[in-house]
Please model this.
Amino acid sequence: MKQRFHYGLNGLRGLACIIVLIFHSCLVFRFYGIDNTDRMPLSISGFEGDLIHIALALFNGPACVTLFFVLSGVVLSLSLDADGELSSKIVLSYWAKRLSRLYPLLIMATIFAAALQVLLFRHHQFRAGTTWLNWAYDVNLTPKALFKNLVGADSTLNSPAWSIKVEIIESAFFPIIFWLSRRAILAAISFVVLFALMLTAHGNGSTLDDLRVYTVCFFAGALIPRWSAPVARAFGRLPPVARLAAIAATIAVFCTSRWVSDPLALQTFLVMATATFLITIVYHRPPGVIATSFFARKLGEISYSVYLLHMPILTTVAFVWLSLAQNPAAIPWLSGTIILAILTLVFTLPIAWLSYTYFERPLEGAGRRVARQINPRVARAGLVTTS
Model:
């Protein structure tokens, strides 16, 4: 096992959150009447069409979410390993830390999104916007719907929160995953079983289907701290040109995996495999100047707030812009997307910093204090945790 805090993983998480934000910005405006630009066939080309394909490959948001799940497997394994051998106290203290990590910000972001529905959006629809965008303005905000969003059972108010539901469920059972990952034979058998379950997924978005698809990603992450050193050593023995080529090829597969839409299991496997390899390389290498820079460290710290708050902010910026524009349909896809992404970043980063500093970190610290009451061996140092 490596150190509990890793600047490289922290920076990778922050970068992935920015990619998700830009990806969502790419889905707001219609492209010459095309509603779902993320599903636009490759046959639609030309200068602008090629730019859309390149942008959605470089900023592959769904792939980054899968990367988050693999990262979660890594850092939750480090957390459990740091606290000692598995016991009832270890598991209870782990749950206390995890609940304080996931739920407070989820609740706050849900209340923020619900307030926007009541005070601003008012079920407005924009012709220049995609169905995906307009869906955010047309939420049936009943007490039942609000409650389901608050507890993570639904994500109608804030679409990125669907992955938090997966995180919550996987986190509850992660001590079992961690235990299985520590024994070679059990780890191999478990990976095969989980991979077979992934092959049975239908891609219907149900909770059970999501668990079939993504549990193996958490398990792959759990394997990295204990079993990935030989892979990292073999990679390190390659000539520099070969290492560069391997990383470039891995990133290329990671970015273009969105074009493999059938079967879903193949797409997920490609993303999981490439994400696992990239995380392995980052995990076993000393963090460089970029990873340890002030911006990278802070971006990694606030990444969970960026992830959960960027969607309400993006839809607010788009709502105000389209409401004030004299001819919204005339907004070009490329320039509109760039401006929207920049504005969303400008507003999201300081708001996320405030959220992390005065809300997320204090409540996570309270959860850690509760965990230390249960198990005094709980480490005081912060852990790289993912959304």
In short: Residues 333-374 form the longest helix (42 residues). The chain has a mean pLDDT of 90. Residues 7-374 form one domain.
